[in-house]
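Field reference: sequence -> structure
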Amino acid sequence: MRTEQEKTKIQKIADFADKSLLIVDDDNPLRDRLARAMEKKGFKVIQAESVKEAVNKAKNMPPAFALVDLRLGDGSGLDVVKEIRKLKKDSRIVMLTGYGNIPTTVAAVKAGVIDYIPKPADADDVENALMALPESKALPPENPMSADRVKWEHIHRVFELCNRNVSETARRLKMHRRTLQRILSKRSPK
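Structure field:
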C-alpha cells in the first residue's frame, strides 16, 4: 500500500481542464489497450501510429498529455516530442520504449520528456508518470516485471520483428538457435 504522503504527490485528472492525451505507438494492440484504459481513467484520448500522423494531430489540437513511443515506423518519437513542446510548452510527455538505454533517455529528457517507461506499459504506471507533480518523481510500480519476464518480453519482441524467423532472431540475440527454440516454447514467466 502507498502511504498518504506518496498519494499526495500525484495529481488527479479531474484537476485539469484540458484532459487530452495523445498516444503515439505503432504497436496497435498495445496502443488500443492503453487508449481504452486511459479513457476509463478520465482522459480524452487521441491515437496516432506514426510520426507524421502524430505531428498532424498535435498541430490540430496540442495535447495536454502525451505518451510517445521512442521508435516508430517512420522515424523517432523524439521528433513528436519536440513538435508538441513547440506547440504547447506545458504539455506533460512520457516516453514509452522497448529499447531503453542511457543515450536515448538523456535525449528524451533534453527534448522535454518528464518520464521514461519501458514496454510493455501498464496503464497505472502511465497515469502515475503523467500525474506526478513536476518537483517529484513518479512512484515506482508496486508490482514491477521480474527480470525473467523482461528478458522473455525482449526475446519475443525481437522474434516478432524478425518475422518469427528463429535463425535470424538467434543471430541477432547472439544465442544458439536451439536455446532460443527452448525459450520460445515455454510459457511467459510471472
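Note: The CA atoms of residues 62 and 87 lie 6 Å apart.
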